[in-house]
Amino acid sequence: MEESTKQLAKILGERIRVLRLDMDLSQEQLGERSGLHTNYIGQIERGEKNLTIESLQKISRSLGVPLEQLFHSIDPLYAHSELGQIVAMLSERPVTDLALVLSLIKTVFAWEVEKRN
Predict the structure, then answer these.
(1) How many CB atoms within 10 Å of residue 53?
(2) What is the reported pTM?
(3) For a surface tag, which of 14, 24, 62, 99 has the fewest beta carbons within 10 Å of its beta carbon?
(4) Residues whose CB is less than 8 angstroms from the CB of residue 97 and which lie 6 or more positions away in sequence, other chains included
(5) What is the distance between the alpha carbons of residues 87 and 93, in angstroms, rounded to a whole number?
(6) What's the number of CA atoms in the CB half-sphere (13 Å) around residue 94?
(7) How far from 9 is each of 14, 37, 70, CA to CA, in Å?
(8) Of 2-11, 61-70, 98-107, which gets the smallest average pLDDT?
(9) Which among 35, 40, 9, 18 has a CA at the least distance from the CA of 98?
């Protein structure tokens, strides 16, 4: 695998792992839901395997997320921007953390508006 492809596979695998854990699923359960072997799920999550489009679709359906969500903001060029770094950090966190971060951002922005007035 080319280095950029390895990095993409690793990021995508990590995103799948986080979503799976968010749903409180084991690799075995995700494998059963998607019709993919448990070992293959593990290899995907570790970034050791390139996913086929068919396998990716099976996984996204099993996780209940659109394909777009799996790929959102993982372009290597985008990752170098500040926004890209924030998105990358958040994509590795559980959904419950996302709600907390959103609340925190809203509070900080509201405080800044009040401070200016």
Answers:
(1) 8
(2) 0.67
(3) 24
(4) 90
(5) 10
(6) 7
(7) 8, 18, 11
(8) 2-11
(9) 18
Q: Both tokens of residue 98?
A: 């996302």
Are the C-beta atoms of residues 7 and 13 closer than 8 Å to each other?
no
Q: Do the beta carbons of residue 101 and residue 90 sit within 8 Å?
A: yes
Model confidence over 10-20: pLDDT tens digits?
889 988 998 99
Distance, in Å, from the CA atom of 90 to the CA atom of 14, rounded to the nearest integer, reads 12
52 phi/psi in degrees, rounded to 5? -80, 160
The pLDDT assigned to 99 comes to 87
**Which token pair is 6?**
């390895």
Question: What would the pLDDT profile of 49-86 be if each residue is shown by its tens digit?
Answer: 988 999 999 999 999 988 888 887 676 556 667 877 78
